[in-house]
Amino acid sequence: MGRVAGLAGVSVRTLHHYDEIGLVRPSARTAAGYRAYSAGDVERLREVLAYRRLGFGLREVAELVGDPSTDAVAHLRRLRGLLLERRDRADAMVAAIDTELEARAKGLKVTPEEQLEMLGTRLYDAIGGAYTATRRTDPRIAAQIWDALGDARTVLNVGAGTGSYEPADRDVTAVEPSAVMREQRPAGSAPCVAATAESLPFEDRSFDVAMAVSTVHHWEDPAAGLREMRRVARRVVVLTFDTDEPGWQARFWLTRVYLPEFATVLAGFPSLAGMADAIGARAEPVPVPWDCADGLFEAYWRRPRAYLEEHVRRAVSVWTRVGPQAEQRAVRSLSDDLDSGRWAEDNSHLADLDAADLGLRLLIA
């Protein structure tokens, strides 16, 4: 027991307590009669300690590790998802701290309420919570995605978020690692599994088709996630972004003139050709309607004043990732150009367009 305690970084007293309450009981004895841990005991102890270090109470941990339907691999996948969610929360807190530091450097007063909102539990909820206000299914984009699904009856939606673009006439299973997103899924929506794209908890060829909509750029390892989709489904449909085309950063006025940092955000993003090769897919353009109902990054290309709205920007991860300094500079510059008429003059050719090709691509395999 002492050796296990040393390896695990806990006290012998802690292990005795776990034994007393039946959480982790050593199942073996040495020749001298001392408690000894089998490989299975150590595996269970690892799960218990991991959940404890993520903040779970002993009663919650007992329920988690005592679930007979969950094996060691499932626990690892769950733990990985929880850790990724914690990382996202930490990233959001860093962005909030940067915002407050910049405000203080300018001599601006930060109220107690703002301080608590920046660093409290509401921070990540506010960022993720903006999705339901602006991120809705656009029927024209949906029609293109659903047409690509073909006659599939069983559909896996990977990185499902709040459930946009899930077809109501199919048997859908959703996968989403973020609890904030899962909690915002509407009543009656498809069942949602807490897992990541890179480690899907399903058998080979479990679904007719696996779909992923505007999520690949959030994945830790996009290539691995795409391979997993190909493994668990007979066909794959992915809405993503094309960075292969020369000068792709310049095709959208927002990134060309006001937010060049967008290129940095996608610096490590895999090429469209590479993603297509990974799943054996063809690519087709997805035009963005001028009145797009889905408030994705490119949605307001003909409605520029929308980008001045805080709640619009908060529902798009790009703004958080470029940082508050770049965001505020872009918003100020765009606001000035809208007020002066310069934006209208520079972009007068957009006024008669019903849709624009801004790099969205549908990979169909």
UniProtKB/TrEMBL annotation:
Entry annotated with the keyword Acetylation: no
InterPro entries xref list: DNA-bd_dom_put_sf, MerR-type_HTH_dom, MerR_fam, Methyltransf_11, SAM-dependent_MTases_sf
Domain HTH merR-type: start-end pairs: 1-67
Keywords: DNA-binding
Transmembrane stretches, start-end: none
CDD domains assigned: HTH_TipAL-Mta
SUPFAM superfamilies: Putative DNA-binding domain, S-adenosyl-L-methionine-dependent methyltransferases
Descriptive protein name: MerR family transcriptional regulator
